Amino acid sequence: MKDIRLILFSLALVLLPLWGSAQGINADKTALTNFLKRMYQHATFDVKVVEDYDHHYLVSAVVLDPAKYDGNESTMMRVAGVKAVSQASRFLNGSNISEDLIVTTRENAEGNINTETIEKIKENSIGYVNQLEHLSNFTIEDGKQVFLYVKQIK
Known about the structure:
The chain has one domain. It is about 40% helix and about 35% strand. It is built from 2 helices and 6 strands, in the order αββαββββ. By secondary structure, it is of the alpha+beta class. A hairpin with a 5-residue loop joins strand 3 and strand 4.
């Protein structure tokens, strides 16, 4: 019985510091997220380098209209990720980007109008920014979604 208590006590001593440091990482990300949301709401931006006490972050903010994507969260996340990488690459390396928006409308026999929107993004770049992390997304006053992506650069 004493052996089991000793093993459990030893295990608790080993795992307790790990649990505490994991909580600290979440607190740091939460603080960064809240700071970036307030910063964006005060003055909008596309790409920005932000620094805290110990680190520098490259932040890419993408604004999407949910109506264009029929409220499909998965599609919006994918498009926001591509646009965030595109913005960050343009900011760091320079690139040539062309975007085409094709809107097709069709009227059926019943008089209903169906609209299809296709957005094509083509980019020629010398470099590529990888490992952008989706930090948060939130809704702004006009109903659009803002997606924040971040990468620690220093």
